Amino acid sequence: MLNEDLIGKIEFYDFLTGKATTAISRRMQRNLKDVGINITAEQWSILYNLWQEEGLTQQELAIRTFRDKPSITRLINNLEKLNLVIRVNDKDDRRSNLIYLTKSARKLKEMGMQQANKTIAEALDGVSPDTIDMAQVTLQQVICNLRK
């Protein structure tokens, strides 16, 4: 028989393993679509990282977005089909491609960031700043623990 403390930890694990992420991703995708940006939340994460720094390798994008190489390849392929990114051969390493934004993707940044901020505001509505800070500390510790 499970005790109440263990049940609470299992529910917390369930939360960490995807419920919040899925809900936020769905809302983000809907908010983007509402303003005519028809990309997935996963594609958004690639664009967001490239808005921060262009010319990243697929490996660097995989690390920054916590995705595996096949997932990154699929996302980049789809973003290329949408004319949002281009691959350029890395002059220093012929085995790698550097990923750059197209003009179309650069034009999406402001509206996309507005929708991201809207999504986060909707997700955190009614959550106190202290609770948010505590959650950030907790989740960062979980990540650090699992990197060992």
Structure description:
The protein has 148 residues and is mostly helical. The protein has a domain of 100 residues: Arc Repressor Mutant, subunit A. It contains six helices and three strands, in the order ααβααββαα. The longest helix is centred in the N-terminal third of the chain and has 31 residues. The relative contact order is 0.12. The model has no long low-confidence stretch (mean pLDDT 89). It comes from Sphingobacterium kitahiroshimense. Keywords: DNA-binding, Transcription, Transcription regulation.
Summarize the structure.
By secondary structure, this protein is mainly alpha-helical.
Task: Explain the layout of strands and helices.
Layout: H1 4-34, H2 41-52, E1 56-57, H3 58-65, H4 69-81, E2 85-89, E3 97-101, H5 103-123, H6 129-147
Antiparallel strand pairs: 1-3, 2-3
Helix pairs in contact: 1-5, 2-5, 3-4
What descriptors fit this protein?
3-stranded antiparallel β-sheet; globular; HTH_MarR-typ; single chain; mainly alpha; MarR family transcriptional regulator; 148 residues; WH_DNA-bd_sf; WH-like_DNA-bd_sf; Arc Repressor Mutant, subunit A; DNA-binding
